[in-house]
Amino acid sequence: MRAAVLSHQFTDSANRRKLRELASLGWSITVAVPNGSAETDGALRIAPIPASGPDDRPHAWRWRGRALRRLLTDTRPDLVHIEEEPGSPAADAAVREARRLGIPAVLFSWESRPRERSFLERRRYRRTVAGAAGMIGGNRLAQALLARGAPGVPSLSLPQFGVIPPTAVERATDGSRLAVAYVGRLVPERGADRLLRACGQLMGPWSLVIAGTGPEQESLEELAERLGLAARTRWLGAQSRQQVAALWAKTDCVVVPSRSTPTWIESWSPVLVEAMAHGVTPVVSAEGALPEIVGDAGTVFQDDEELLVKLQELVMQPARHRELGEAARRRVLDRFLDASLARALDGFWREVLARRAAGESSGART
């Protein structure tokens, strides 16, 4: 089976792990990327497509339709998979060329809530979604939003990229106190103030590490002082990926206390998945995609009072956070590795092709 996969994200070879896994499942894959040069990456064929647009907004680039048509004509894939947002110039061009050649197209989107679009953007979005034979949302919210635009078209919730978990989990905590961590930007929507207020009422042995910087840092430090948390809180500032990875061994529980705004929602959290892969217990707000990521391998809270209750339970029951940490790692190994994503995508692609074949067969009989 042959597939053409299109995204500016795959210009970076580190983002192609899922595609390499798909190739190992028997797919012959051509990866269309904007500009660059033709090359091979293992079993993958990399095909550059001329594109233009602002350097800092590759998602808005216009890909040359003729070049896309020539690529699809030359390779004759059974399916076109597009990881550019529906309604973007690249997705619009790819769907149009695929339809011209009678090739089913699968769309991917991270967009997790409706947003305002210009008249031309709305028309392009509707045209793109209407032309899809299958749709994948990076989370269930994105999946549902896509499905609203094309009822009856097969859809799936599946993250775009997998993670590389540590081969073994190291724990440097002794269980004598609950080691809590917050990792992320210090901005209102990330909700670090919610965590500080909950910690201000916690009873028993605990400590808090806050890794990250942002415009709210000064006010958050003042809040911690007013709540009497200075002795139990460490502010690490900006951290590299390697430093964050090293932090997990010293952490029992990671809290992601995000709050949605009219213009923003938590669609994915790489930090959360990485922490879970290291066996850290996740405690997350019921916002956006966070509950879907955690599943039953962590704790979800609805409001600030419930956050306090959940943290207090972990302080008083050390065995509970160890149990949840183990479940969190198992969930990542089961669901969020590139091999797992590739198997799910392989099954979905085959479903789309089977539906297309059944529809064509039914039409021929009629």
Topology (SSEs and partners):
Blueprint: E1 2-6, H1 17-24, E2 28-34, E3 39-41, E4 44-49, E5 51-52, E6 62-63, H2 65-75, E7 79-82, H3 89-100, E8 105-109, H4 119-130, E9 134-137, H5 140-149, E10 155-157, E11 178-183, H6 192-199, E12 206-211, H7 217-226, E13 233-237, H8 241-247, E14 253-256, H9 270-277, E15 281-285, H10 290-294, E16 299-301, H11 304-316, H12 318-335, H13 338-365
Helix pairs in contact: 1-13, 2-3, 3-4, 6-11, 9-12, 11-12
Descriptive report:
- The structure is a single chain.
- The protein contains 13 helices and 16 strands.
- The chain is of the alpha/beta class and 366 residues long.
- The protein has two domains: 190 residues, Rossmann fold (3-Layer(aba) Sandwich), CATH 3.40.50; 158 residues, Glycogen Phosphorylase B (Rossmann fold), CATH 3.40.50.
- Helix 4 links the parallel strand 8 and strand 9.
- It is elongated, with a radius of gyration of 23 Å.
- 41% of the residues are buried.
What count of structural domains?
2
* Main structural class: alpha/beta
**Radius of gyration (Å):** 23 Å
How helix-rich are the residues, as a percent range? 40-55%
Instruction: Classify the fold: give the CATH topology of the largest domain.
Output: Rossmann fold
The general outline is elongated
Please name the defining characteristics of this protein.
single chain, 366 residues, alpha/beta, Rossmann fold, 2 domains, 8-stranded mixed sheet, 6-stranded parallel sheet, 13 helices, 19% strand
